[in-house]
Design goal:
The chain has about 375 residues and is an alpha/beta fold. The chain is about 40% helix and about 15% strand. Bound molecules: NADP nicotinamide-adenine-dinucleotide phosphate and ligand G4F.
Length: about 375
């Protein structure tokens, strides 16, 4: 039985990857951080099953800033595969905590690689590093002749997050070349799901769409509506991570859908999914979104009501304007075929967030009806 160790197992990707590897018969170990309140919501369903004999799932307390802890966990687990997904992953927040991001996302990667080397596991343990399309920085002149970023496009990170991740990328490649380790970078473009953190733009939009439709929120405030992203589904992307580590030769791969969409259009798609059409008027910070029509009898939205506005607090000091990746190498070499398109992703996220907001609304009503 193969043994996998996942850092960042409590995150969006970690939770889907854990499910995938368990399905494939792996023994899965995960690193979770100690927190003052529960932080395992995304994996509780797996954890609760662990007492059943067939579930091989173990969690270890740990942190990527703590070398001795990382060495001890890897020594105990003796993994065949390590997926280093742990990171402070929010680009905007990285401008507030640049040193912490460098420590976790940059040096944290080195700690994993060094631990494997110190323990003499270079031949046994394969390592996946969660690299990112943020490395490209969205510079138009760096796209290839087909208009995509590919595995040869130059990097130009535009945030402390991108700068930390570029160290993670190069140190992974260096350890592969210097010590012959099976260490690979997955350069993943944005991927989302109903488990996406609530402060990333897609989830912020689908949660707010549900809350506005159900009368629980008046207006959604966003930052740069002009940004364009290549969005896929996290479930498809963790499958690619696994495929990267099953190859004969270690290499780096882009994982992307090859299509890009404006943030503004993601808003329109989310509302349209629940029968509400939005019309945008105005420009820059004055741009606003209004209800143009509402065909869903369950939602009582007044026509012409303003429900979207721009709030400059969500702008970044330096922005990545446009990302679009070329998945040719991953499709041909890995045989990777995504099951979701953007419409399918939005549909799933909206269905999930409508249920979530309905449940929250019901709980609020129950709580307010209890006379303490
Ligand atoms: P996520 O939901 O933010 O999850 C990040 C995980 O890292 C969480 O489990 C978090 O723990 C953990 N973590 C944070 N700081 C840590 C530390 N100091 N030590 C150990 N663990 C720590 O991110 P994701 O979307 O699943 O992304 C997974 C990885 O892929 C990240 O490295 C991200 O940078 C990278 N990536 C993501 C995308 C994307 O579009 N999703 C694209 C490219 C690359 P808590 O739950 O305790 O916070
Ligand atoms: O959803 P986002 O915060 O994701 P971002 O910055 O692209 O980063 C994500 O993808 C990277 C891969 O390219 C990962 F490496 C990283 O870990 C993370 O998962 O923002 C997407 C775009 C940005 O251009 C942002 O300026 O949406 C724009 N945006 C507009 N309004 C907003 C908002 N972003 C957020 N978070 N919140 C807003 O209100």
């Amino acid at each position: 039985m193969k043994i996998a160790l996942i850092t960042g197992i409590t995150g969006q990707d970690g939770s889907y990857l854990a499910e995938l590897l368990l399905e494939k018969g792996y023994m899965v170990h995960g690193v979770k951080r100690r927190a003052s309140s529960f932080n395992t919501q995304r994996i509780d369903h797996i954890y609760q099953d662990q007492h059943q004999a067939h579930v091989n799932f173990t969690l270890h307390y740990g942190d990527l800033t703590d070398s001795t802890n990382i060495i001890r966990i890897i020594q105990e687990v003796q993994p065949d595969e390590i997926y280093n997904l742990g990171a402070m992953s929010h680009v905007k927040v990285s401008f507030d905590s640049p040193e912490y991001v460098a420590n976790v996302d940059g040096i944290g990667t080195l700690r994993i690689l060094e631990a494997v080397r110190i323990l003499g596991l270079e031949k046994k343990t394969r390592i996946y590093q969660a690299s990112t399309s943020e490395l490209y920085g969205g510079l138009a002149e760096n796209k290839n002749e087909k208009g995509f970023y590919d595995e040869h496009s130059p990097f130009y990170p535009r945030s402390p997050y991108g700068a930390a991740k570029i160290y993670g990328f190069w140190i992974t490649k260096n350890y592969r070349e210097a010590y012959n380790m099976f260490a690979c970078n997955g350069i993943l473009f944005n991927h989302e799901s109903p488990r996406r953190g609530e402060t990333f733009v897609t989830r912020k939009i689908t949660m707010a769409t549900a809350a506005i439709a159900l009368g629980e929120q008046d207006c959604l405030y966003l930052g740069n509506l002009e940004a364009q992203r290549d969005w896929g589904h996290a479930k498809d992307y963790v499958e690619a991570m696994w495929r990267i580590l099953q190859q004969e030769v270690p290499e780096d791969y882009i994982i992307a859908m090859g299509e890009t969409t404006y943030v503004r259009d993601f808003v329109k798609m989310s509302f349209s999914e629940v029968g509400i059409d939005i019309e945008f008027r105005g420009e820059g910070v004055d741009e606003k979104g209004y209800v143009a029509s509402c065909s869903n009898p369950d939602y009582q939205l007044e026509l012409g009501k303003q429900i979207i506005a721009v709030d400059p607090q969500y702008f970044r000091p330096t922005e990545v304007d446009l990302l679009i990746g070329d998945p040719t190498k991953s499709k041909t070499q890995l045989g990777w075929v995504p099951k979701y398109d953007l419409a399918g992703l939005v549909k799933e996220m909206m269905a999930s967030d409508i249920l979530y907001v309905k449940k929250e609304k019901m709980l609020k009503e129950v709580r307010s009806s209890i006379n303490y």
